[in-house]
């Protein structure tokens, strides 16, 4: 009985770790979504569009900057879904697509 309990505990841990690993998005899929919905303002390399920033009188932070990268995935999700300051929300994305975009944004880390 003790061995069975230990085996079940081990399987549960493995299952939970696999679930957590799968919770992270797919950066490759996120790149396509980013290109379609985000690159006009944030540029393909995440540096921010300087002409748009000047026109809107805003600073668009580099997505690889420590300021952006220190935010949790949950915080970035809120920015994507709800917008921030003059950044509008991105509508029509599934939760999986948002996770994928966040995974792609993480690739910009300096």
Secondary-structure blueprint:
Layout lengths: L1 H22 L3 H11 L1 H4 L7 H7 L9 H4 L3 H10 L12 H12 L4
Helix pairs in contact: 2-7
Number of domains: 1
End-to-end separation in angstroms reads 51 Å
Mean pLDDT: 87
What's the CATH topology name? Cytochrome Bc1 Complex, Chain D, domain 2
Judging by the overall fold, what is the CATH architecture?
Answer: Orthogonal Bundle
The sequence of SSEs as H and E is HHHHHHH
Question: Can you describe what's shown?
Answer:
The protein has a single domain (25-106), classed as Cytochrome Bc1 Complex, Chain D, domain 2 (Orthogonal Bundle). The longest helix has 22 residues, at 2-23. The protein is mainly α and 110 residues long. Mean pLDDT is 87; it is low at 14-22. Helix 2 (27-37) crosses helix 7 (95-106). It has seven helices and no strands. It has helices spanning 2-23, 27-37, 39-42, 50-56, 66-69, 73-82, 95-106.
Features:
single chain; 110 residues; mainly alpha
Summarize the structure.
The protein is an all-alpha fold and 110 residues long.
